[in-house]
Amino acid sequence: MNIPSELKYTKDHEWVKLEGDVATIGITDFAQSELGDIVYVEVETVDETLAADEVFGTVEAVKTVSDLFLPLSGEITEFNESLEDEPEKVNSDPYGDGWMIKVKCSDLSEAENLMSANDYKALIGA
Questions:
Q1: Which of 49, 63, 91, 123 is the most exposed place for a label (fewest CB within 10 A)?
Q2: What's the predicted TM-score (pTM) here?
Q3: Is the pLDDT confidence value at 55 over 90?
């Protein structure tokens, strides 16, 4: 199970990469493996400002549809549009080409509530 140590994580199985006040967000390797083959990623919240824990989109797999929860408050500035044609990138490269959104964070102190890689490993029993 791939859990990069430089990223932060949520109990909802999203990962966060902070660069200044911009967060790149996607779902973890564990999440994509639990979901199975991902067939569709829907994010209709670009240019909207949402609070932490609000739903920013959904990911649809062969077996199920799951909500995506925003880990940090802010404005969603970008959606990885390559996922429209190739949603399977979330399965094959969840921390790289399979990223989902970028957010301009409005409250960086919220990042203190995110889990470290070790905390996330404990959560999933890795």
A1: 63
A2: 0.96
A3: yes
